[in-house]
Amino acid sequence: MHTPRLRSSRRTFLALIGASLVAGPTLAAGSASAAPTGLDDAAKKEIAMKLVSSAENSSLDWRAQYGYIEDIGDGRGYTAGIIGFCSGTGDMLDLVELYTRRKPDNALAGYLPALRGVDGTDSHEGLDPGYPDAWRQASQDQAFEQAQDDERDRVYFNPAVQQGKADGIGTLGQFAYYDAVVMHGNGGDSTSFGSIRGLALERARPPAQGGDEVTYLDAFLDARVWAMKQEAAHEDTSRVDTAQRVFLRNGNLNLDPPLDWQVYGDSFHID
């Protein structure tokens, strides 16, 4: 089950990440951190992928989603792949461009003109009827899987983790940032990640500014729930209320397993 998101264009995200993240260092999207000390630790990152997949796909098997594609009716055209790349928001176009640079002869290369044409819209013009089958065919190629991984990290995962570390929050907080960026993007609107973080900063200080981590994360999750409720499709806030908030109330700031949570009424467990 893929839930509609408020995510802005990836290009907008990259352009505004420094400007939108207030009261913290400017972070370049995709730049590597010195060492994995939080969510970027391999085991913690695997947990993060499973947590997001439980909400986005109702499954912990995130690697089974490379070939996923459908129009979920959220005004962003086709949603596809492990992180929900969208034909209407630019990140799917950039993914296919990256894949084609690495492997010019691929099943999706011929759709690049159509993807450029529908960018910023929910149109399927030039994509139907063959594009979904081409995507699924490409998903059998390890090079396409790697391209999806790389774009996920460069655009969403790395910037969220870096901002979390700059704010002095631990693994759980870094995951809360990542999940928010996945759903909301970081454009200039009032429900983007930067705006959510800004609302939290109005109520509490992060550890990097001398604040208490639990108090700050409570404020961030409150702001996240508010942002989700601004769109009818996000009225179910269980990915926060019965998942991230549960870990926070249990004092599990390091996201140490075993983990038990619920999303949309489904129960999940990680040993």
Automatic annotation (TrEMBL):
PROSITE patterns: CHITOSANASE_46_80, TAT. Its main location: secreted. It is an enzyme of class 3 (hydrolase). The active site is at E56, D74. It is found in: Secreted. One of its GO terms (biological process) is carbohydrate metabolic process. Residues 1-34 form the signal peptide. Keywords: Glycosidase, Hydrolase, Secreted, Signal. One of its GO terms (cellular component) is extracellular region. Pfam families: Glyco_hydro_46. It comes from the Bacteria. It catalyses: Endohydrolysis of beta-(1->4)-linkages between D-glucosamine residues in a partly acetylated chitosan. Its EC number is 3.2.1.132. Aids in the defense against invading fungal pathogens by degrading their cell wall chitosan. Belongs to the glycosyl hydrolase 46 family. This is Chitosanase. The lineage of its organism: Bacteria, Bacillati, Actinomycetota, Actinomycetes, Kitasatosporales.
